[in-house]
Every structure is written in C-alpha cells, then in structure tokens.
C-alpha cells in the first residue's frame, strides 16, 4: 500500500514561519492526523481541510505542539458535526493527557467527564501492531525525549519510520534499516544549539549515507532555509506538499 504524507506544519515547538510538526497520512481514502498541536486547527483551515475528513488522530506525546489543538478539535467535532473523533493513543499517555492537559478545558459535568467522553479512544501498546485501516498499520516505539515522560515514535506498514520528538538513537535507526525493511525515515531535527531533548543535525550527519538517503527532516526552526545544502544526503520535508512515501 502506497502511503502519502502531507505535513500540516514542519516547525519546531517555537517556530513562527512554520506550523507545528503535525502530519496528514493518507492511505487510499483513509486519513490519519499525526499529532494535533496548537496550530493544527489553523493549518487545517489554511489547507481547506474540514475536520470531519479526518478519520482518526494519533498522538506521539503531550507537548503543546503535538496535542494543543485537541480541545478545539473535540469541541468542534461534537458541537459542529455531532461526532466523537477517533483518538489513537499509547495506554501510558491516557492519564496524563486527560488529567494534565485536557480536563480543565474539556470537562462538563455529566457530559464530558473522561477522555472517552470526548474521543473514541483506541489504545496502542508497545510491541503490538495495530491495524488502523485496511491499508494502514502502526506500531508505537517508545523513544527518549523528556526524562521520565513517555513519547512514542511510529512505524507504519512495517517500512516507514516517523520519529516523535526524540534524542539521537543511531542503533534504532540502523536496526530498522538493516533488520526491519525500513524504506523511509521522517525525522525531527534541531539545527542549532545543543540537542538535549532533540536530535541535532550534527548527530544525524554522523549516520552512514545508506541511512541518510532515507531521511526527510522535520520539526525544524525558522532558520531552516540557511541550512539548505548543508544536510548531507538528507532533505527537508516541506509543509503542505504531498509526498508519496
Ligand atoms: O528539557 C527541555 C524541555 C523542553 N525544551 C523545549 O521545550 C519544547 C517543548 O516542545 P518540543 O519537545 O517540541 O521542544 C521542546 C524544547 O524546545 C527544552 O529545550 N529542554
Ligand atoms: Zn515538538
Ligand atoms: Zn516534545
């Protein structure tokens, strides 16, 4: 099954020239929204994409640039379309997403008292492959980001790796390419400064060319244009363009 990817945005958390790093993944007529950050509603509006054309949302972790648009998404689906959005989420993220992020804004006594009242929740467990649609499967892979906080990268159809925000994990990338048929890697990048909770361009440039050629860079800062031609065998993913993966 050929997948297509259209990023709503390719910016890092504080980018202002680019929307948040959220993507629409198309598998034939099925549309999965990967992360729904603060700017997702505006990015969808800019693309002319109605919310009810999205079949499900999957979230990687609970930073604002990945979940900050969920409150608006849920309210507009409920009161505008009379529907509950399908939400794929790692079991370990349910409690923090509801208790620490959404409860304050979304809860209404007797109407919305839990995440299940606002979303059609489908739980994901590490190591288990979930069939999302006839042409789309996903496996979540926990990858380090903020110490003590869970964050999950995604492996689609056993061949496409989509990194969550994460630190550099060369062994994982090497294993996916050499042992698990990985054809394409959508990877976050931090262009300047120390990585700390992200993967730096310098780190990615240390990968062998056979892996770099598979990588498209995303989640970058406003300085991206000045790095064109300085990314080895890797290219930048551009927001709103449709890529066949
Ligand atoms: O220890 C920390 C924790 C966070 N941060 C910043 O906050 C941002 C939160 O969203 P993000 O994960 O896309 O990017 C993160 C970084 O830009 C940081 O620099 N160091
Ligand atoms: Zn982020
Ligand atoms: Zn993050």
From TrEMBL:
Gene3D superfamilies (alphabetical): Ribonuclease Z/Hydroxyacylglutathione hydrolase-like
Catalytic activity: 3',5'-cyclic CMP + H2O = CMP + H(+); 3',5'-cyclic UMP + H2O = UMP + H(+)
GO MF annotation terms: hydrolase activity; metal ion binding
InterPro entries referenced in this protein's UniProt entry, alphabetically: Metallo-B-lactamas (IPR001279), RibonucZ/Hydroxyglut_hydro (IPR036866)
Pfam family, one: Anti-Pycsar_Apyc1
Residue ranges occupied by any Metallo-beta-lactamase domain in the UniProt entry: 19-219
SMART domains per UniProt: Lactamase_B
Coiled coil: none
Cited function: Counteracts the endogenous Pycsar antiviral defense system. Phosphodiesterase that enables metal-dependent hydrolysis of host cyclic nucleotide Pycsar defense signals such as cCMP and cUMP.
Protein name, per record: Ribonuclease Z
């Amino acid at each position: 099954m050929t997948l297509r990817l259209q990023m709503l945005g390719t910016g890092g958390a504080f980018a202002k020239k680019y929307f948040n790093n959220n993507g629409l993944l198309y598998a034939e007529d099925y549309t999965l929204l990967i992360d729904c950050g603060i700017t997702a509603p505006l990015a969808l509006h800019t693309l002319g994409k109605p919310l009810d054309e999205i079949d499900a949302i999957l979230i990687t972790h609970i930073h604002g640039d990945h979940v900050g648009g969920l409150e608006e998404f849920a309210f507009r689906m409920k009161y505008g379309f009379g529907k509950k959005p399908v939400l794929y989420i790692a079991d370990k993220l349910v409690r923090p997403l509801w208790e620490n992020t959404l409860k304050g804004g979304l809860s209404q006594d007797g109407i919305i008292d839990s995440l299940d009242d606002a979303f059609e929740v489908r739980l994901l467990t590490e190591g288990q492959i979930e069939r999302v649609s006839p042409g789309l499967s996903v496996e979540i892979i926990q990858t380090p980001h903020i110490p003590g906080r869970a964050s999950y990268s995604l492996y689609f159809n056993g061949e496409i790796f989509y990194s969550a925000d994460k630190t550099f994990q060369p062994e994982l990338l090497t294993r996916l390419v050499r042992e698990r048929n990985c054809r394409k890697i959508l990877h976050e990048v931090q262009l300047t400064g120390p990585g700390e909770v992200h993967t730096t361009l310098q780190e990615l440039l240390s990968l062998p060319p056979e892996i770099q050629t598979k990588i498209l860079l995303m989640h970058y800062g406003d300085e991206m244009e000045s790095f064109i031609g300085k990314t080895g065998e890797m290219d930048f993913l551009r927001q709103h363009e449709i890529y066949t993966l």
